[in-house]
Design a protein that fits this description.
8-stranded mixed beta sheet; 10 helices; single chain; Rossmann fold; about 250 residues; alpha/beta; globular
Length: about 250
Amino acid sequence: MSPDDSELMFELFERTPRQGPGSVESTRRALALLPREMRLERVLDLGCGSGASTLVLAAGTKAQITAVDRHAPFLATLRANAERQGLAARITTLVADMQDVAALGADFDLAWAEGSAYSIGFENALRRWRALLRPAGCLVVSELVWFTGRPSARARERFAIDYPDMCHETTRIEHAREAGYTPLGSFRLPASDWRTYYAGVRSALRDAIALHGERELYAALQRECELYDACGDEYGYVCLVLQSPGEAA
């Protein structure tokens, strides 16, 4: 992606309620899968975007949350929304690369990554992020996966370009085990999460095209929306709740 396209992409997603599929209900569902007795004082939200999930985590826990993204305007939106909801005192924002674990800290009770691990490679993310967690801390991560062993040619061709590392959901669960985590639970994000997300994308696309005219970047996003309309039962996000090795504190 060219620098100009990257700027246009960020500008477009600054206009969307979320930067990926998800919902308040799905975030709460993942939280409910954590061990009931788990200490939950320090949380790291990786690739938080404008903070849709961060705010749910803050409202649903008493933890101090560090919200990380490399795009500063997303974090500015998060801070403004946190202030309005009375949650700002427990949310710290950090402009950083999710791979730079030395800059992110350590001994977190919980690391949260909704839809962001793919950007640094799922298996790479699992390995790197273990260093962020205290013994027996948890990682909640959602990942784009195949729901079928025989996806259609249209879907295969698209993801061969967009995400060639895409795997079946059972394979990703096995990758988590191989990386040393214990899976505590998993679920597929519902189709409603995708429909709401793409409604926001389509609205932002209309505004962007009116402002900048037709661009290949915008056409690619429109094709992405259309692919989900046609083939959305073949793929989606699986949310995994994983526990790192060690004894709980």
